[in-house]
Amino acid sequence: MTETETRTKNFTIEINQDWCKGCYICVEVCPVDDIFFIENDIGEKGFQPLDVHNLETCTGCKLCELLCPDLAIVINSK
Ligand code: SF4
Ligand code: SF4
Predict the structure, then answer these.
(1) Mind listing the pLDDT tens digit of every residue in the chain (78 residues)?
(2) Which ligand has the shortest distance to the CA of 54?
(3) How far is the CA of 67 from the centre of ligand 1 (A)?
(4) Domain that holds residue 25
(5) Using CA positions, which residue lies closest to atom 1 of ligand 1?
(6) Ligand 2 proximity of 50 Cβ (cutoff 6 Å)
(7) CATH number at residue 69
(8) Is there a contact between 13 and 5 (Cβ–Cβ < 8 Å)?
(9) What is the number of domains present in the chain?
(10) Which ligand is nearest to the CA of 24?
(11) What is the pTM of this model?
């Protein structure tokens, strides 16, 4: 399993890259503009991979986790 875990001040954001299908619903529903980052280059799965940056602004609302259709994101409190 390919998994990225990003630690913020208050939360961890885990993205399971094997399950992510690049629908970017998480990006659309996140109330903070610049947490998620869509890479420019097409990855081996045929879409632009999702990544996380500007970590400190995550509010922990879990909208991304709740609305990801593939259960590819997990937000945990530290
Ligand atoms: S909502 Fe889930 S499947 Fe869609 S881009 Fe985000 S992590 Fe990937
Ligand atoms: S928990 Fe909320 S604020 Fe944090 S990345 Fe997910 S949707 Fe955005």
Answers:
(1) 565 655 556 888 999 989 999 999 999 999 998 899 999 999 889 999 998 887 788 899 999 999 999 999 999 887
(2) 2
(3) 9
(4) 2-77
(5) 68
(6) no
(7) 3.30.70.20
(8) yes
(9) 1
(10) 1
(11) 0.87
